[in-house]
């Protein structure tokens, strides 16, 4: 299926007739791509619908009519992966709930001791960022200013530090 450059340009400019023509013309290709990419046949209709919506909204970002099919194929591939990604995310959430439930069962005094040991096991950089955020209750921007680093670096360090603490506490669980 070949899309004329003039028809494509009109669709990009927002011409409703050209846009409808483009959606109707590409619908069979989108369905074929979705059937090929999606393992579950129940997801195909949803992927087609979502791909058409994305095409409608983002057609102006595509450089040329000749690159439209490749762009759509990438969109459909990503849309087909969404259910798997959501499942993995849900499994991670479940793991976090299980870990939280375990930590909630530990007596408070014992948890405090384990937390102190976890903080002592951190590098000075990671220990400092946790203390600034969780003990002194500084905001991300205040910590970034205090440490003379970017807010992104602050968030990254804090995330890594908390992950190390969590890992330490959960390692105690299995010991």
TrEMBL record:
UniProt family annotation:
Belongs to the sigma-70 factor family. ECF subfamily.
RNA polymerase sigma-70 region domain segment(s): 25-80
Q: Which UniProt keywords apply?
A: Sigma factor, Transcription, Transcription regulation
- Supply the name of the protein: RNA polymerase sigma factor
- Domain of life of the organism encoding this protein: Bacteria
A single Pfam family it belongs to is Sigma70_r4_2
- Species of origin reads Serratia aquatilis
The RNA polymerase sigma factor 70 region 4 type domain covers 114-164
């Amino acid at each position: 299926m070949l899309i004329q450059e003039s028809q494509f340009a009109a669709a990009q400019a927002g011409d409703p007739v050209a846009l409808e023509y483009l959606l109707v013309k590409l619908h069979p290709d989108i369905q074929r791509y979705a059937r090929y990419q999606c393992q579950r046949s129940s997801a195909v209709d949803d992927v087609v619908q979502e791909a058409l919506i994305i095409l409608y909204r983002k057609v102006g970002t595509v450089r040329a009519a000749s690159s439209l099919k490749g762009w759509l194929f990438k969109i459909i591939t990503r849309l087909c992966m969404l259910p798997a990604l959501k499942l993995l995310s849900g499994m991670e959430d479940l793991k976090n709930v299980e870990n939280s439930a375990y930590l909630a069962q530990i007596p408070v005094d014992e948890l405090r001791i384990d937390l102190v040991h976890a903080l002592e096991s951190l590098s000075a950089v990671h220990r400092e960022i946790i203390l600034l955020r969780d003990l002194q209750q500084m905001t991300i921007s205040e910590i970034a200013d205090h440490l003379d680093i970017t807010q992104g670096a602050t968030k990254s360090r804090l995330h890594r530090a908390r992950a190390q603490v969590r890992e330490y506490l959960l390692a105690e669980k299995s010991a």
